[in-house]
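The freezer alarm interrupted the setup, so I double-checked each line after restarting. Inputs confirmed:
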Amino acid sequence: MAIIAKPVRGDPAQEKAWLGAIAQGDHRAFEALYKEFAPRVFRFVVRMIRDESKAEEVVNDVMVEIWKNAGLFEGRSSASTWILSIARFRALNAVRGKKLDTTDIDEATNIADGQEGLAEITDRYAQRKLLKTAIEHLSQAHREVLELTFFHGLNCKEIAQIVERPENTVKTRMFHAKKRLAPILEGMGLAGAA
Amino acid sequence: MNKDEAKNLLPWYAVGALEDDEAQAVEVFLNISPELQQELAQLRVLGDAVAEVGEDEPVFRSELINDALARIETVEQVKPTRTPIVEASMKAQEGGFIAWLRDTLVGGWQESPGGARLAMVVQFGFILALGVVLLTPTGMDVPPGPADGGVLVGADGAPGQGPEITLSFNPDVTVGAMMDVINDIGGQIVAGPSTQGIYTVRLTDADEQQLNEIVAKLREDTTAIRFVRKKRDN
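Predicted 3D structure, all chains:
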């Protein structure tokens, strides 16, 4: 079976090597890691807090924290997990007291349900657009699991570490996210059992 | 693993994030279950859609790296705790050098014929003798002065008081042009360049308003200046 999708995950061994070098004050390793991770961290954070300029601040705060604490990274998790955990913590702190974009998950279904004659939308582009809109209207917690899986290419255990929830919770969130999106996917001719 | 467990793991199978044994177990069910095959087809579309969702969103500005590089200059790193990662990194560096030394000296020596080995010993002795002669003091000191080899070097701990800025120059800026910029603002290099080419420049006796005007002026000079900012501890 072919592996599908196209997560951005890089080379885990290289990423750990960068962190090891950064711990010893290697600026070039920091630059390399920054170029690899800053855009990923930015996407993750901006999708959480919906504030571009604050997200930029968070990214650099995260990268400086990596520089400072790389010597504490023990390699028991992947570099991606460690870095995105820091990013999530920083992002939540940045918007402390402000309600995150946590649209009720039912809205995703409403978007699907609200499309009269969904099954009749045969235009591929329109279907795709509808699916993306529905993903954006999932709750932050459900969207986060989709994002960390399909964009960042992380496994269930890594996601559980980042969101600080048990693995089963991650699986449950994935299940519900798929279930909410199922009507749209089925409308695209992809009947399934989500 | 049963079929339901395989189904639960399918999203992570889809992105290649499962361990080999888990992936193989999922494939066992995938090969015999049309339902799971259908689910995988859905995940393919879903995965692509998730990746595309951010395409309309703001893009990260790569120039922000300059700010991060300036900030790490002022941050004290937590000392490495000899974690496995640090150990591996140190060994890789040591191992690389030792391997190179071994390959260069021992490997080359063993592969060389007897006559060549003798010639190498004579050459080594000659280089050693030359080094001794050149390094022996002759009473002539090199006069102190500004570096003239294309590198602008700061004098750490230069006297005087005033606010400080950090700045770096574009790669094609000459030493003379750098000096012109620093002289124009009445500055004095007190540290640098760092490994990133960042200088710390003291603006002797400048007040806050003058400091702001100088920083604003330097920011306009994009042909020479890569970035400039006030030091945090001013």
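Quick read of the result. The two ends of chain A are 20 Å apart (CA to CA).
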